[in-house]
Amino acid sequence: MDSGAWAVAALVALGLALAVAAVVVVPWRLPGPTRAARAAAFREVPEDVVDRGRALHAALRPSAYSSLFAGLVTPLLLGLTPAGAHIVGWVAQPFGGHWLAQAVLGGLTVLAIVWLVPLPFAAWRHVVLRDWGLSTQSWRGWVADLGRSGAVGLVLGAVLLAGFYTLTHVAPDWWWAWGALGAAALVVLLSFVFPVLVEPVFNRFTPMPAGSLRDELMELAARDGLPVREVLVADASRRTTGLNAYVSGFGATRRIVVYDTLVGKASAGEVGSVVAHELGHARARDPELGTLLGAVGAAAAVVALYLLGQWDALLRRAGVDSIGSPEAIALVLAVAALVGLVTGPLQNVVSRRIEARADRHALRLTGDPATFAAMQLRLASVNTADVRPPRLEYVLFATHPDTVERLAAAREAGAPLGDEEL
Ligand SMILES: [Zn+2]
């Protein structure tokens, strides 16, 4: 069997593994709230919250769709024409067209273009968020954040490009096998490294001072069988008025992180319901699950890319000889953009199921659907959420159930207590 046949076999095996994992570990059987519960939940939401959410999202829509469009069209224009290959060639010219210069400098240039083109739309979004008082970040801070993301991307990109194209250079027929292993390992590594190395680049974390809130959160975690080492407060208010919390780390390093915005605005019970949702993720091992699916998906993507490289017409269109050549980086990004567009809604479906399960966990753990519902209403109001977004936006962008669905889940959890139709 030659390399191509092994690659087909590997892709089939990885695809099956992904399909089995998606069927087995995603909570598909979790019943969603009924239409009647959703209708009743919608009536619970104050009219001004509904209107404000709709108005904000109408204001954000042009920048959201422009950004999506720019993020798709830029790699397509560079990758499905010889433009990307030309750029890589030019950048590497002063280095005699050396493959490593093509890989790192050429690759980073193409990545930078694809990153920069949608930025004006991100700035437009920031204008709207500031006008609405939802972003507290100055333009200086906004640009500083861009600089930080750019620096992280530059380092990570350079390492990835050098690694990947060294592999395609030394193993032109078998890079897909090593690349698939490397991609899977990288996903696992990054999921450990990100919270430790990258989060502190953007936020400062301070231990929550001793007091009743800290005690309540620690007690909640202990009751859930997930003792935590500490509760940290992130200085998110530098950037946003949005409310959030998360649980990160494993075992002895497990910690609860709460946004300072949440501590300032919500009652202790409400903070508890958000933390209980996060504990639900930790209990169900959602971070590990996401890492596993991501690792298998990344490996499959590398193998699929190799096989796509057998399609001569596609290579000719991009003006390259091989998909493993650094000159084909824009073609790779074009393929990734198309695949992302198709698989994004699928990933959102999986994410919404997992979020719904964490909500159920929170409702069970706290046994307090009324406070959970109050927190959902507070989130909708403070974050100016579209409580029931248009179908297309729900499919394209929603990683969580919408507010109405979450309120309906709380109503259904509260139903046995008999306080429903009053
Ligand atoms: Zn969640």
Structure description:
- By secondary structure, the protein is mainly α.
- Residues 417-422 have low confidence and may be disordered.
- It has a four-stranded mixed sheet.
- It is globular.
- It is built from 17 helices and four strands.
- The relative contact order is 0.14.
- 72% of the residues lie in helices and 4% in strands.
- The site of zinc ion has 4 residues, from helix 11 and helix 14.
| Shape by Cα distribution | globular
**Order of helices and strands, N to C?**
HHHHHHHHEHEEEHHHHHHHH
Query: What is the arithmetic mean of pLDDT?
Result: 91
Poorly predicted sequence stretches spanning 5 or more consecutive residues: 417-422
Largest sheet: 4 strands, mixed
Number of strands: 4
Briefly note the structural class of the backbone: mainly alpha
Helix count, per DSSP?
17
Query: Level of helix content?
Result: over 70%
Bound compounds, please?
Answer: zinc ion
Strand content: under 5%
Throw out a few tags for this protein:
422 residues, mainly alpha, four-stranded mixed β-sheet, 4 strands, 72% helix, 4% strand, globular, binds zinc ion
What can be said about this structure in brief?
This protein is mainly alpha-helical and 422 residues long.
Helix and strand topology:
Elements: H1 3-25, H2 35-44, H3 47-79, H4 83-92, H5 99-116, H6 119-131, H7 139-170, H8 175-202, E1 205-207, H9 212-223, E2 230-234, E3 245-248, E4 255-259, H10 260-265, H11 268-283, H12 286-308, H13 312-318, H14 329-366, H15 369-382, H16 391-397, H17 403-414
Parallel strand pairs: 2-4
Antiparallel strand pairs: 1-2, 3-4
Helix pairs in contact: 1-12, 2-17, 3-5, 3-6, 3-14, 4-5, 5-7, 7-8, 8-12, 9-11, 11-14, 11-15, 14-17, 15-17
The structure holds zinc ion.
